[in-house]
Design brief:
- By secondary structure, the chain is of the alpha/beta class.
- It has two domains: about 160 residues, Rossmann fold (3-Layer(aba) Sandwich), CATH 3.40.50.720; about 180 residues, 2-Layer Sandwich (Dihydrodipicolinate Reductase, domain 2), CATH 3.30.360.
- It has 13 helices and 20 strands.
- Strands 15-14-10-13-12-11-20 form a seven-stranded mixed beta sheet. A six-stranded parallel beta sheet has the order 6-5-4-7-8-9, with helices on both faces.
- The radius of gyration is 21 Å and the shape is globular.
- It starts with a strand and ends with a helix.
- About 5% of the residues have low confidence.
């Protein structure tokens, strides 16, 4: 691709890849001689922890980003990421970023998850494009309000379901869309992370494995099965190490069965109590069964094994978001971050819509209600979680 300056905009000239060259994956690629307008943008990142740090480094290295502005409550982390990225602004109060009119788009990677709705609401009301880490909100009516504001202000609003940018997951959806495995019949996804990361997540939030882990797989399978809609959810939880370690009402695993309006059903199991191992280790297994074939996907991150005298056997590059490896990146989060930059800078649609994220939220709320009652819960739910708890059947 070639960038050419034209006034305040950049013009992009894309060429088809040569025969024998690897196919281009960037959304920038255009037909030979085709031209599209590309606008450099100013980006604000609210929260520069694990995921926010990845997004900050990715944005800083991208030519679409003119200036980078950071907000982080921990001064030492703020200093570290500001130095790495050459940020124009670095503040411990995100509201200071809202005063900077030049910012076009925000990545909101703040924790705890209760901050997502209020911060996203302020950014959307300011007329800014927003990338928000999952979950979209804690209550359905909050999600509905954010979606309404985004539509009213005609800004892009997307949620961080990074596994859609995992090439293995994308291949499953492609194989359904092009008919390779026929019509979907059933699906199964099993995902587990280590208890160290599980304790970190549960220490900042009371959200369940369904809301914090299975949510990625709910999004993935619902995406694959579109336009079918979920109509019924049944779920169970299992207690063990997490409850024993914390004394809290924290299950180790949660299993969810979802029935769709076209008769397809799928099962997702998710947990966060694997024994300690490589930091932030995640392992996933997928089965997608169709009328003309099946896909079995191993995303267990056992393809690279490091064995040293000091640390023993480890599984590097095994987290869900991924990690930088010198000039390269192992995982989906970098591509996801760039996708949003391109959506804003090139005025393109986002891959994950807020409406889709709202549907995922409704399903995992129903799963939690089902586990609590030990009975299936029908969809749609009332907009209020309290109303849902009192009346959904």
């Amino acid at each position: 691709m070639i960038f050419v300056r034209h006034g305040s905009d950049w013009l992009l000239f894309g060429l088809r890849h040569a025969v024998g060259a690897p196919p281009a994956t960037s959304a920038f690629i255009a037909h030979a001689g085709e031209r599209s307008s590309v606008r450099q943008i100013n980006v604000g990142i609210i929260g520069t922890g694990w995921c926010g740090g990845i997004r900050a480094e990715t944005c800083a290295a991208n030519p679409l980003v003119k200036n980078l502005h950071l907000a982080e409550t921990r001064p030492e982390r703020l200093t570290e990421i500001a130095r790495l990225t050459g940020a124009k602004t670095a503040t411990t109060d995100y509201r200071e970023l809202l005063k900077i009119d030049e910012i076009d788009a925000y990545y909101i990677s703040a924790t705890p998850e209760s901050l997502h709705y209020p911060i996203a609401r302020e950014c959307l009301l300011a007329g800014k494009h927003v990338f928000l880490e999952k979950p979209i909100a804690l209550e359905l009516h909050e999600a509905d309000e954010l979606i309404a504001i985004a539509h009213k202000n005609r800004v892009k609003f997307t949620i961080g379901y990074s596994q859609r940018f995992n090439h293995k997951f994308a291949y499953v959806r492609k194989s359904i869309a092009d008919g390779t495995i026929g019509k979907p019949v059933s699906a199964l996804v099993s995902r587990h992370i280590t208890r160290g990361l599980g304790k970190k997540i549960t220490g900042r939030s009371r959200l369940s494995p369904a809301a914090m882990e299975a949510t990625h797989d709910l999004d993935f399978v619902l995406w694959c099965l579109e336009p079918a809609k979920p109509i019924r959810v049944y779920s169970t939880v299992n207690y063990g190490a997490m409850k024993a370690a914390t004394g809290g009402d924290i299950p180790d695993t949660q299993y969810i069965m979802v029935t769709m309006d076209n008769g397809v059903s799928f099962v997702i199991g998710a947990g966060w109590s694997l024994p300690p191992g490589y930091p932030n280790f995640s392992t996933t297994w997928i089965e997608m069964i169709g009328t003309e074939g099946a896909l079995l996907v191993d995303d267990s991150h056992r393809d690279v094994v490091l064995n040293t005298m000091q640390q023993g056997m480890q599984l590097p590059m095994s987290s869900m978001p991924g990690e930088f490896v010198d000039h390269s990146y192992a995982g989906p989060m970098k591509a996801e971050t760039i996708h949003f930059l391109e959506a804003v800078g090139c005025d393109r649609p986002v891959l994950v819509t807020a409406e889709q994220a709202r549907q995922v939220m409704e399903v995992y709320i129903a799963a939690d209600l089902s586990a609590e009652r030990n009975e299936a819960v029908s969809l749609p739910l009332p907009e209020s979680r309290l109303a849902a708890a009192g009346g959904a059947r």
